[in-house]
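Progress against Task 2.4 (sequence-to-structure conversion) is shown through the following example record, which the project officer requested during the mid-term review.
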Amino acid sequence: MAADSDGLPRLHVDFNEMIEDGTVDLRGCAEELTKLSVPLRDGLEVVLWDEDVQMEGFLRFDLRHGMWVAVPSKLGFPIHVVIQVEGDDTKFSIHWDQFDGDDGFGRHWVQVTSPEGTRRFDYDGDVVWGLRKTSRFLETKVDPKSDPHVLDCTGFVIERGPTEITLTVRSEGRLLDWIVGNPKVIIDRTFLNLYDKDE
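Structure tokens generated for the chain above:
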């Protein structure tokens, strides 16, 4: 397996195999993975490439799906960050994409999957603080005796109670609500951990 000019192993991937959390599914790259000049490990920095794109990234073992994934990065940071909230029959994910290497993301959206189908709501870019604020809000424990906690973001509102999370999206002059019962919040803190270390 060749290395680039910085000595990083090169890994041929299919960027069309990007999954919901912004990582690249490497199950189709088994042969490429065996050719790496170093043992696989979480955080291993590599150069990801296909016929059209080349970028740095790192490897991570995705416990949830039981597979290796590649995390495209810019200046060592993932370029795509996602928070997922999964419930009984409804789930939503909040995405920050195209990290600029400083303190902003070029794209930001919310995707909702419910029994009625999947919908995506696109917003302008966002800053790292928006990601941090949302992460803290969803990580904080809710006292069952307190009133619901509310986070008002540009374009959408999240309300947390002890047993459910309500997402309200402003779209075309209407308010659309989804209730996620028995929510499980999944936050990959890789980006914020690296960003905090870098400050």
